[in-house]
Amino acid sequence: MFQGLVSLRTLEVFLNELTSLPLGVFDNLNKLEYLSLSSNKLASIPEGSFRNMTSLMFLYLSHNKLPSLTSGMFQGLVSLRTLSIQGNELTSLPLGVFDDLNKLEYLSLSSNKLASIPEGSFRNMTSLMYLYLSHNKLPSLTSGMFQGLVSLSILELMDNELTSLPVGVFDDLHSLTYLTVSRNKLASIPEGCFKSLTKLMNIDLSQNRLTILRGEQFRNKTKLLYLYAYNNLLSSIEAGAFQDLSSLQTLYLQHNSISTVPQGLFDNLTALDWLNLQSNNLSSLPSGVFNQTVKLREVYLSYNQLQSLPDGIFDNTPRLQYFDAAMNSLSSLPSGVFQNRSNLVHINL
Predict the structure, then answer these.
(1) Taking the mean position of all CA atoms in its chain, how far away is CA 39?
(2) In the beta sheet, which residues pair with residue 250?
(3) pLDDT of residue 157
(4) Which of 13, 15, 238, 306 is at 20 to 30 A from 199, Cα to Cα?
(5) Which domain CATH number covers 343?
(6) DSSP code of 85?
(7) Residue pair 190/214 in contact by the 8 Å Cβ criterion
C-alpha cells in the first residue's frame, strides 16, 4: 500500500476500522517520523512490523483492542521518543518489550487491564521522562519496577488496586517532580518510601485508606509545592510531619477523620497559600496555629466540630482572602478576629 513513499514523514490512519496489519506494510517507510494507528480495532500487530522504521519518533497505538504485546514488537525503533498504548486491553507485558527504546521520553500504558509488570521492564529507558500507568488493575509494585528511570519526571499510578508500596520502589527516581498514587487502596506508606525523591514538587495520596501521616514520610521534601491527602481515613498527623515542607503552597486534608492539629504542625509552612481541612472531626485548633503561615490566602474549616477559634488566629496572615468555617458549632468569635484583614473578600460562618 505504501510502496514508493520513500519521503513520507507523517502517516495518520486513526479513527478507522482496522482489525489487523499485514506484515511488511511499513517496510519501505524508513524516513517516517510520525505514525498514528489510534482508535481502530487492532487486536494484534505482527512482530517486526516496525523493524525498518529507524527514523520513527512518535507512535500512537492508543484506543485499539490489543490484548498483548510481543517481546520484539518495538524492535528497531531506535529513534522513538513518544509511545502511546493507552486504552487497549493489555493484561501483562512481556519482559524486554521496551529494551530497544532507550531514547523514549513519553510512555502511556494507562487505561488497560494490566495486573502485573515484570521487574526490569523499564531498565533501558534512561531517557524516559513521562510514565503513565493509571487506570489499570495493578495490585502491587515490585521494588525494582522502576529501576533505571533516572530521568523520570512524572509518574502516574492513580486508579489501580495498590494496597501497599514496597520499600525502595522509588529509589532510582531522583528526577521525579510529580507522583500520583491516588484512588488506590493504600493503608500506609512505608518509612523512607519517598527518601530519594528530593526534587518532588507534587504528590497526590488522595482517595486511599491512609490512617496517619508520619514525621519521616516527607523528610527533605524542600521543593514540594502541592500535597494532596484528602478522602483518606486519616485520624491523626504526627507533629513534625510537615517540618521540611518550606516551599509547600497547597495542602489538601479534607474529608478525613482528623480530630487534632498538633501544636506547631504548620509552623514551617511559610509558603503555604491554600489549606483545606473541611469535613474532619476537629473540635479545636491550637493557639498560634497560623502564626508562621504568613502567605496564607485561603482557609477551609467547614463541616468540623469547632466550638471556638483561638485568640489572634489570623494576626499573622495579612494576605488572607477567603475563610470558610460554616457548619461547625461556633458560638462566638474572638474579639477583633478579622481586624485589619484588608484583603479578606469572603467569610462563610
Answers:
(1) 26
(2) 226, 274
(3) 99
(4) 238
(5) 3.80.10.10
(6) -
(7) no
Instruction: State which residues form the domain around 231.
Output: 210-349
The pLDDT of residue 3 is 78
What span, in angstroms and rounded, lies between the C-alpha atoms of 133 and 108?
A: 7
Q: Which cell is 276 given?
A: 483545606
Angle at alpha carbon of residue 314, lines to 312 and 315, rounded to 5°: 65
Question: Is residue 56 domain-resident?
Answer: no
Say which residue the cell 491523626 belongs to. 236
Domain annotation covers residue 179: no
Which residues, listed in sequence order, are joined to residue 298 by a DSSP beta bridge? 274, 322
The reported pTM is 0.95
Phi, psi of 83 (to 5 degrees): -135, 120
Q: What is the DSSP letter of 87?
A: S
For 331, half-sphere exposure in the C-beta direction (CA atoms, 13 angstrom radius) is 3
Answer whether residue 18 is part of any domain. no
Type and span of the H or E element at 58: strand 58-60
Indicate the Cα dihedral angle 167, 195, 148, 227, nearest 10°: 100
Q: How far apart are CA 259 and CA 257, in angstroms?
A: 6
Write down the residue that cell numbers 493507552 correspond to.
86
Counting every residue written for the chain, the total comes to 349
User: Which three three-digit cell numbers place residue 177?
Assistant: 517532580
CA dihedral 143→146→151→155, nearest 10 degrees, is -100
Structural Rg of the chain based on CA atoms:
25
pLDDT at 1: 72
CA nearest neighbour of 148 among 122, 109, 130: 122
Q: Which residues of the chain have pLDDT under 70?
A: none
